[in-house]
């Protein structure tokens, strides 16, 4: 507007000191070291955003950048640069489950004590449903076990049928691991976990059974959190609903979750944390 109006009048209108305007005018053409640094950081942010399908938020991106760059970066700076690039992380959807009356219930021995000092001493297991079509009449069922020591998925199995075999096949993987004697395996009150055969099988392998209170998903929060990440970072973003392709994608995601995905409380992936703590 300086071609039509004087600088003095425009500065008065904008309540800006004229010397400050000229200082800004002179500075805007100068590329500072901070500008160069911001450009480099933006390129990395874009790479991370594309690589991980927009599932990394500012805090996780910040940890990632500090690991690969030789400069200290604050999450507020990452947030500002993400806003400038109009980049936002995927927001997870809430999932509500139906309630039912279980056949028999074990005590809640875990009692939300999720802190663990040794691997394979406290485990959480559950099953999640993944729709295979828009009508939600066909599902892929994922049974998974998480080690609370480092949040690693140590056993899992998938099937198009939510039956006893799905859980049994997951347990067979679990029994091949060097579990600590008296290891706690925590589940909800699903029908698969209230069977006498299931309870007896755990006792034979010296595993202590624990169950959530009825209608209280927070008692089994660690595995629920994993399912939430899986769905928001893969399932809701994936276009395929072909069973075999989806199984392959889930296999790849679980490998990524265990080996590469940064957990905020560790600043590294589950397997990296386990190796670091050993």
Automatic annotation (TrEMBL):
GO biological process: DNA integration
InterPro entries named among the record's database cross-references: HTH-like_dom, Integrase_cat-core, RNaseH-like_sf, RNaseH_sf, Transpos_IS3, Transposase_IS3/IS150/IS904
Function: Involved in the transposition of the insertion sequence.
GO MF annotation, one: nucleic acid binding
Domain of life of the native organism: Bacteria
Organism per entry: Clostridium sartagoforme AAU1
Protein name: Transposase
Classification via Gene3D superfamilies: Ribonuclease H-like superfamily/Ribonuclease H
Record-annotated Integrase catalytic domain positions: 115-278
PROSITE patterns membership: INTEGRASE
NCBIfam families, per database record: transpos_IS3
